[in-house]
Amino acid sequence: MLIIEHARRGQRALMGSWVIFAMMGGSMLGSAVPALMSNLLTAEQIAAWGWRVPFLLGAAVAVAGLVLRRTLADRVDLPVAREDLPLTPPIVEILRTERRTLLRIILLLMPIGILYFLIFTYAASYLVEQSHFTSAQALNITTLNLVLMTLAVPVFGALGDRFGLRATYLTIAVATFITAVPAWWLMHRPDLGLVFLGQLVLALVNGAASALTVAALAGMCQPHLRCSTIALGYNVSMAVFGGTTPLIATYIANRTGGDFAPIYYLLFATLLSLPVLWRLPGRQAPGRT
């Protein structure tokens, strides 16, 4: 949240989008490594020893992060904490006074989490198991779309500053309703190029919504509870709705016998988020909305 609080007025969505850019960069690398392994090694080599390589690379990244963390300055110049604030643990105060804000955060993030896990987890497995593409092909198009989505995030952040959070988010919601079903149809075609195009459309919609989340969430919370409220709402939304999406999508697809049932789940979540989107500010500094 520091990046939003110290950003210039009129650039807060853009600055917040760089946080999402960094997060998606990690996901992009996480997809790129197995994609590279699948293209360079045979299935037998991966089963024998290749599966260890991503873990070794992850350990190296962890060590590098530890070294970087130890080189940071111990102190930064931040505003002095107010002494008149209550000593109640943040989680207690949030659950007592900020339940409505917490619900708004969960609803705002719900379609974003569902769409991400739908196109990059559930659909990736579907391509291999049902559409009979190879793991390398599925990982290749997933990685490429992650790259394109990540690169587009700052652009959408700048658009959020230019047109305001409410207008941009509502436009994204409309785009979701217009493109979701056709894009999902493309992802079920036997042609890999059409699958890539369908996933790209949904990835860009997801990237656009994700790019604005930091600025939007910062404006929903009381300053002294901002970090804790966003952390709680984000993790609850992603765990309850995002993380369960592959399971729910598989269940409703099998239960209804229709491949399009999962995308209707996304549209229902988007519909639930509309009242929250309508209350977002336009070109306004983060604060209580």
In short:
With 289 residues, the chain is mainly α. It has helices at 2-5, 12-40, 43-50, 52-71, 90-97, 99-129, 135-163, 165-186, 192-211, 213-218, 226-242, 245-256, 261-278.
3D structure, described in words:
The chain has 289 residues and is mainly alpha-helical. Helices cover 78% and strands 0% of the residues. The chain is built from 13 helices and no strands. It is globular and about 55 Å long. The two termini are 16 Å apart. 36% of the residues are buried.
What's the mean pLDDT score? 85
Regions with little confidence, pLDDT below 50 for 5+ residues: 285-289
Helix proportion range: over 70%
Run of helices and strands? HHHHHHHHHHHHH
Derived from helix and strand composition plus strand pairing, the structural class reads: mainly alpha
Please name the defining characteristics of this protein.
289 residues, mainly alpha, Growth Hormone, Chain: A, single chain, 13 helices, disordered C terminus
Outline the fold blueprint.
Elements lengths: L1 H4 L6 H29 L2 H8 L1 H20 L18 H8 L1 H31 L5 H29 L1 H22 L5 H20 L1 H6 L7 H17 L2 H12 L4 H18 L11
Helix pairs in contact: 2-7, 6-7, 6-9, 6-11, 6-12, 6-13, 7-8, 7-9, 8-9, 8-13, 12-13
